[in-house]
Design brief:
This protein has 353 residues and is of the alpha/beta class. It has 13 helices and 7 strands. The chain binds adenosine-5'-diphosphate and magnesium ion.
C-alpha cells in the first residue's frame, strides 16, 4: 500500500501517522454469543467488508479450505476490501484477565445523521461481546444514545448534566446498567442543553467532563462518548478527556465538507488542552457499494486519511432505524445480520489499533 510521506500526511490530517500494530496475540476470544455465520436478512447492500481474520465467521471465508475442488483464486493476492485497499490482517482480540484503565474515544462529527450514536451503541456492544468493559457516555441533549439503549432518560432526575455541573452528585447516582452485560451508561436528557451556557462561567470549563469521568476510568476498558452534532463546549469537553477521536462519516459527498473544520478543532484541542489527543480512526457509514458515488467518497477519504480509515465500512440498511425503536444494538436485535458482523469487525480493528 502506498503511503503519503509523513510531512504530507501531517499536513493533510493534522495528526501523526499511527504505527502499525503487529501485536502477536497468544490467546484470543470469540464474541460472547455463538452466532451463526452472517446472512443478509434485509436484501440490502452487504459489502461491509472488514478484515479477514482467523476464526472469523465471514460468509466469504466460510468453508475455506474444506472444499476438495481446486481453488482458481490466486492465493497470494490479498483480499480487497470495500475501501478499495487490500484488507489488513487483524489479530483476534486477546482474552482480558483484568480490566482498565480505559481508552477514551470521542465519537465525533459536527454533522448530524452520520451514524455517531448508532456506532457508539453498536461498537460498544461489540466490544462487550469480546469481554471488554464498556462505559457509554451520552453527551447529546437529544438523549438518542440513552433511548437507543432502552433507557428512558427523560424520566431520570439525575443525568450527566448533574454529574458535570453539580459537585455533590456522585457518579453512582447517575450510572445506569444496560441490558447488555459489561455495558454501563451515563445517560443524558434535554437538561444537558443548559450545560453549554452554564459551563461558560465555570472554572476549567473544558475539563468538566474529564473530572466527572475520572473515577470510572480505572474500571472500564473503553469509554465511548457520543458527541452532539456541534463543535461547541460539550464536544470540546469530550475531546479534552479523550485519547482519540473516532470520526463516523457518511459515504456521501456532502459529508466531506465539514471534515477540515473537525480536524482543525481536534488540532486546537490537542495543542491547547489535551496533548494526547489524536484521530484514532475514520469510519465510513451509510455505505452502498453498488453506487460509484459511495465508492468515490471512500476513495477520497482513503487518499486523505490513509490507514486511519477502518477497513470495516458500515453499509446502509433499514435494520438500524429498527434497532432504535427496539432500544437495543443490532448485535442483539439481529445478531446474525451482516450489519452486526460489521460492528464486530470494527471492534476487532479498534482493539488491535
Ligand atoms: P448521528 O448520531 O450522527 O446523528 P445516528 O446514529 O443517530 O446519527 O443515525 C441517524 C439515523 O440514521 C438514525 O435513524 C439511524 O437509525 C440511521 N442509521 C445509522 N446508521 C445507519 C446505516 N448504516 N444505514 C441506515 N441507517 C442508518
Ligand atoms: Mg447522535
Amino acid at each position: 500500500m502506498t503511503q503519503p510521506d509523513d510531512a504530507a500526511w501531517i499536513a493533510a490530517t493534522g495528526a501523526p501517522r499511527r504505527e502499525s500494530n503487529a501485536a502477536a496475540e497468544t490467546r484470543t476470544v470469540e464474541p460472547r454469543p455463538a452466532e451463526p455465520r452472517p446472512v443478509d436478512q434485509d436484501g440490502e447492500a452487504v459489502d461491509h467488508g472488514g478484515p479477514a481474520v482467523e476464526g472469523a465467521q465471514g460468509a466469504d471465508n466460510a468453508g475455506a479450505g474444506t472444499s476438495s475442488y481446486p481453488s482458481y483464486a490466486d492465493e497470494t493476492a490479498p483480499e480487497m476490501g470495500p475501501t478499495g485497499r487490500p484488507l489488513r490482517p487483524v489479530a483476534e482480540p486477546e482474552v482480558l484477565s483484568a480490566h482498565g484503565p480505559a481508552r477514551v474515544i470521542a465519537m465525533c462529527n459536527q454533522k448530524g445523521g452520520v451514524g455517531k450514536t448508532t456506532s457508539t451503541i453498536n461498537l460498544g456492544a461489540a466490544l462487550a461481546e469480546y469481554g471488554r468493559r464498556v462505559l457509554l457516555v451520552d453527551l447529546d441533549p437529544q438523549g438518542a444514545l440513552s433511548a437507543g439503549l432502552g433507557v428512558p432518560a427523560h424520566e431520570l432526575d439525575r443525568t450527566i448534566y448533574n454529574l458535570m455541573l453539580e459537585p455533590s452528585t456522585a457518579v453512582t447516582d447517575v450510572l445506569v446498567p444496560t441490558r447488555l452485560e459489561g455495558v454501563d451508561l451515563l445517560p443524558a436528557n434535554i437538561d444537558l442543553s443548559a450545560a453549554e451556557v452554564q459551563l461558560i462561567n465555570e472554572v476549567g470549563r473544558e475539563q468538566t467532563l474529564a473530572r466527572a469521568l475520572r473515577p470510572l476510568l480505572p474500571l472500564s476498558d473503553y469509554v465511548l462518548i457520543d458527541c452532539q452534532p456541534s463543535l461547541g463546549l460539550l464536544t470540546v469537553n469530550a475531546l479534552a478527556c479523550s485519547h482519540e477521536v473516532l470520526m463516523p462519516l457518511a459515504a456521501e459527498f456532502f459529508s466531506l465538507r465539514g471534515v477540515a473544520l473537525l480536524v482543525d478543532t481536534v488540532d486546537k484541542v490537542q495543542s491547547r488542552i489535551n496533548p494526547d489527543l489524536k484521530i484514532g480512526g475514520v469510519l465510513v457509514t451509510m455505505f452502498d457499494g453498488r453506487t460509484v458515488h459511495a465508492r468515490d467518497v471512500v476513495a477520497m477519504l482513503v487518499e486523505r486519511f490513509g490507514e486511519l480509515v477502518f477497513d470495516t465500512v458500515i453499509s446502509r440498511t433499514v435494520k438500524f432505524p429498527e434497532t432504535t425503536v427496539a432500544g437495543e444494538p443490532i448485535t442483539t436485535y439481529a445478531p446474525a445480520s451482516s450489519a452486526a458482523e460489521a460492528y464486530r469487525a470494527l471492534a476487532r480493528e479498534v482493539i488491535a489499533r
